[in-house]
Amino acid sequence: MAKDVLCEVNSCTHWAQENKCSASSIYIVSNRPEDTHKSEETDCKTFEAK
User: Fold this and answer.
1) Residue limits of the DUF1540 domain (predicted)?
2) Contact yes or no for 17/7 (Cβ under 8 A)
């Protein structure tokens, strides 16, 4: 389990109680071609729908 990773997307397979992520690793990518400076400019590729 990834330590201290929080997630509010409770429709994800990896979502656990207290908004914790139970994935063994996390993969996040930029969703824009330029440098990323804000969280809104990223996407979690670890997401799997329940």
Assistant:
1) 5-47
2) no
